[in-house]
Each structure stands twice: as structure tokens, then as C-alpha cells.
Design a protein that fits this description.
heterodimer; A: elongated; B: alpha+beta; 4-stranded mixed β-sheet; 6 helices; OmpA-like (chain B)
Chain lengths: 139, 193
């Protein structure tokens, strides 16, 4: 329950706070909120909708007038949480490019070798890159 | 009829680790990563070929249960892989909300640099209850549903994910063909292509 509240406030932060202070959560933790807050509504109004093709998201939006208040609030939080994590993961390689060149010279790209190197070099790695790794959920 | 309906029940709640132990502990992203990473060999096998092999196994060796394992079984067994249980609606490919988190964990794992850029098969399996052709079809639809969820809701790049349904053609526990352990979604790492 505490986690749920935490995740919820995180979602609010993402909307209201500048990006540099944002936190992100993983995809499993995000979608777990949807199952917890909207599980009942999904079984009532979206019995044939699936996670595929964003079916659940679209069905909940279509039926928003019937949903519980909690589900209506959290369904938007979940979308923003997933987007935030996607954005953070797209940004991380860019924000760590310089550190990778400096501390992981000669490390073969692919299969997470560069990330492993950056994690090992954490004390030397720039704050910018370390934060990017945190936000991407890569630690 | 009853038998056919039971085949739809390819659902259970236990997460099973790749080592074959029944895991009572909660499934984690890192557990999935550790089991899938480190693909070494280059594998010359497409999802279509594997799907075709399962169909031919039924056509060549008809009967209530598969008399032998797939010719490709040994090849598959040598690859980095992980088994998860995902709950679907009865007789349907609709993932139930209680399994959203498990699909999210797969997304968490596939979105890490450890696994990015590698090709994966998402393979659906049923137990041996019901007709083999029916099970093949249902397991393919379920594997496709998991793939679609990963690609759309969680935006895992689709070019690396291929759905295959093996029905009851590759049981995990052939000595107990109706056991729950046979109902699973298997992720197999085919490496960089």
C-alpha cells in the first residue's frame, strides 16, 4: 500500500515537477498499479479488452465516466510512469556517452558491457550519467 | 467436450525459475536477465520453422498425445531461456490483470542493455489435455498476445520478438503430461541476428 501511494505521488511529481527531480519506476511496478487500482473496473467494463494494442488503456478512457475515482486517477499516472521510464532509458546512453568514452574505452559495445563498466566506475562517473542510470532503472 | 474446455485452462499462478525449481520467491527482473543473457552461439532457426516443425509433428505422428519430442528440442534446450507462468482467461488469449505485472517484468528485462538488440522467441505451451491441434492454436494466440502486450503497452521493439505456439508438442514434464508445470510461456534468446 505504501508503495502504491509512493508511486502515485511520483506520478504527480512527473506532471508538476521539473524533469530533473523526477523519479521513475519500472514497467512492472507501473502496470501493477493499473491492476490494483483498475482491476475491478477492467473486469466490469473491459472484459474483452487486452493489454495488446493498448486495448485496456483505450477501453478505460472510453469508459472513464463509469470508473472508480481511484482508477481514473491512476490510469493516467500509469501511462505517465511508463512514458517517463521509456524516456529515461532513451536518454541514458546519450547522457553517459562522454563517461563511456572516458572510463570504458575499448569496452565492446552490446550485451550490457558498457553499462557494466559504468556501474563499476560509479565513483568516477559524472553525476549526470549516474543519475541517468538511476532514472533508467539500470542499477 | 470437457477435455477440450480443460485445454483452455493453460493458467496457473506459480512463477517457475529456469533451473526447474518451483520458485516460491517473487519473480524478479534480474532473475529473468540472468537466465537470458550471455547468448553465445549463432542459431540458425526462424520462428516459422519452429512453428512448422510443431505442426508436422502432429501430422506425422497423430494421436491423443505427442509420441516423441520435437526434432528441434535438443537445439532449443541448449539456448538461454526462462519460463514464466502467465494467467489467461479461460479458453482465450486475454491476459488476466493479475499477470500484468509479470509481463511488465519481462519488459523491464528486455529494456535493459543486457538484452537489448538480441532476438527472442516467445513460446507458448499447454499441457496435454485436449486436442493437439487445438492446443497448438491456443498457445500460438497466447504467445502472440504476450508479444503484442510487450510491443504496444511496454514498447519493446517488435523486430526482435517472435511468437511461437508449441501446444503440447514439447512438454516440460513428459512423465506427467497433464501437470501444471507444462503450461508456460517460454522466452528463448536467439542472440544477435
Amino acid at each position: 500500500m505504501r508503495r502504491l501511494i509512493f508511486a502515485f505521488t511520483t506520478g504527480l511529481m512527473l506532471i508538476t515537477a521539473p524533469a530533473t527531480f523526477a523519479q521513475t519506476v519500472g514497467y512492472a511496478d507501473a502496470i501493477k498499479i493499473l491492476a490494483a487500482s483498475c482491476g475491478k473496473d477492467i473486469e466490469s467494463y473491459c472484459k474483452s479488452a487486452t493489454l495488446a494494442n493498448n486495448g485496456i488503456t483505450q477501453c478505460l478512457e472510453k469508459n472513464q465516466s463509469k470508473l472508480s475515482a481511484k482508477c481514473n486517477a491512476d490510469r493516467l499516472v500509469v501511462i505517465s510512469l511508463i512514458q517517463a521510464r521509456l524516456a529515461a532509458q532513451a536518454e541514458a546512453p546519450k547522457l553517459c556517452q562522454r563517461d563511456a568514452a572516458q572510463y570504458c574505452k575499448g569496452v565492446k559495445a552490446g550485451a550490457g558491457h558498457v553499462l557494466r563498466c559504468l556501474l563499476k566506475a560509479q565513483p568516477s562517473v559524472s553525476e549526470k550519467c549516474n543519475t541517468a542510470i538511476d532514472l533508467a532503472g539500470y542499477r | 467436450m470437457n477435455k477440450l474446455l480443460l485445454a483452455g485452462l493453460s493458467a496457473a499462478f506459480l512463477a517457475v525459475s529456469a533451473s526447474g525449481l518451483t520458485a516460491q520467491t517473487k519473480l524478479s527482473r534480474n532473475e529473468i536477465i540472468n537466465s537470458l543473457q550471455g547468448a553465445q552461439q549463432k542459431v540458425d532457426l526462424t520462428a516459422d520453422e519452429l512453428q512448422q516443425a510443431a505442426l508436422e509433428n502432429i501430422q506425422k505422428y497423430p494421436g491423443a498425445n505427442a509420441p516423441n519430442t520435437l526434432p528441434l528440442a535438443d537445439k532449443l534446450a541448449s539456448l538461454r531461456q526462462f519460463n514464466v507462468e502467465i494467467t489467461f482467461d479461460f479458453d482465450s488469449a486475454r491476459i488476466r490483470p493479475e499477470s500484468f505485472e509479470t509481463v511488465g517484468l519481462i519488459a523491464d528485462a528486455l529494456h535493459t542493455p543486457y538484452l537489448q538488440g538480441q532476438t527472442f522467441f516467445i513460446v507458448g505451451h499447454t499441457d496435454a489435455k485436449g486436442a493437439r491441434e487445438y492446443n497448438l492454436e491456443l498457445s500460438l494466440k497466447r504467445a502472440q498476445a504476450v508479444r503484442e502486450a510487450l510491443v504496444t503497452t511496454f514498447r519493446v521493439p517488435g523486430e526482435y520478438l517472435f511468437a511461437v505456439g508449441l501446444g503440447e508438442e514439447q512438454l516440460r514434464d513428459p512423465a506427467n503430461p497433464d501437470a501444471a508445470v507444462n503450461r508456460r510461456v517460454q522466452l528463448i534468446n536467439l542472440g544477435y541476428r
